[in-house]
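Lab channel / #folding
Pinned by the channel admin:
"Please post every new chain as: sequence first, then the structure tokens as a reply. Keep commentary short and put observations after the output so the thread stays searchable."

First post following the new format, from NK:
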Amino acid sequence: MNHQTDNGNKWSLLISEAKRFGRFLLSEMKPKGKVVTPFNVFAAAVLATAAVLLVIRFTQGLASTTNLSQDFPWGIWIGFDVITGVAFAGGAYVITFMVYILRLEKYHPIVRITVLNGFLAYVFYAGALLFDLGRPWKVINPIIGNSFGVSSVMFLVAWHFMLYMIAEFIEFSPAIAEWLGWKRIRKFLGGLTLGAVIFGITLSTLHQSGLGALFLMAKSKIHPLWYSEFIPILFFVSSIFAGLSMVIVEGSISHRVFKRQITLQHHIDHEDIVVGLARICAGTMYVYFFLKVLVFIHGQQWNYINTPMGWWFLVEVVGFVLIPVRLFTQAVQFRNLSLIRVAAVLTLIGIVVNRLNVSIIAFKWYAVERYIPSWMELEITLGVIVAEILVLRWVVNRMPILREPPDWALQRPEAIRKTGFVVKEGEEKQWATINM
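Reply from TO:
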């Protein structure tokens, strides 16, 4: 009889906690702050339009919304959303390497927001691949073993993407556990972080260069000024300063938008962090510029310089590599944050130009009819970016990303004994604990 009573009490407790947890999640779905703002109105219009266009795309085929063709099967959804977007997400593997492997604790305050940015970038930009595939339901082929294609670079990139997203989710998961108050699970996930970081860094270096390796099979289709056997190396090196430049730009924006969540120590260290990132950008950009010059001289492509494509090549290398690296160098010397941000923006523009040159602009440059993305392709791309920003804002406003984790998460792991669910009712926080 007592045994049945105990079981009944446990079930009652579990049901009660489930209800509390459900109310907590529902309360977290509510907007934080004003609903009607200029950005929210703009985002709603963009997403509504993109949703309509995606319905048309998936019901009527690619030709209904894109200017893609058999001659130009890869357009802006691949050239920007994937090839460029993955380079922008490179800051995650660089920052985690610096914090968890090199133990540069100065950069620890930005590690979570950087990992979150990287994870969301991969989720949304890899998800954008579905828009570009003629038969999107076959995207699972590399996973289930149907036409594996193990000799294909695409097979490797697909697995790298999938495994890296899992690794980044594990790296970020302690923040989710802290948000939900899951103490015991937080302890377990924290123990996985270092392994996930090492695994993620390995995967990231492989697929950053792997994206460049995709173009090695298109030697006859890419302009000689952009084609090189060293494209994988150039893609990898450029992903370092591209990712860190994105961290600088996004960090500057987050520092203003989420300033109330940022700790006092983070405010104090902000200048040192930005200057340190700029110093790394300058160093890697010098290496990249040296490699570009070396590849150009080795390829003996002097005869292409005095042509329209040659002039455009000089704009990319001089305007968006040499000038930004000079600005980074000067800004670091004088600790000029404004100049660092200008250099970072120019660098990001340069990465966009470079990736689009390789994948679109310099691809079949000799063709009479060129690929120009339709307004619908651009609108859907904008929708992907806006959706990512909205999800990022939702997460940062609720989880300990920029602010300090709860006190119990900072305790020694052996001091944590129970898992708790944080339940918010109005302005109060109630804790309900249950043994797991």
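NK: Residues 34-434 form a domain with the Formate dehydrogenase/DMSO reductase fold fold (CATH 1.20.1630.10).
TO: also worth noting, The chain is about 70% helix and 5% strand.
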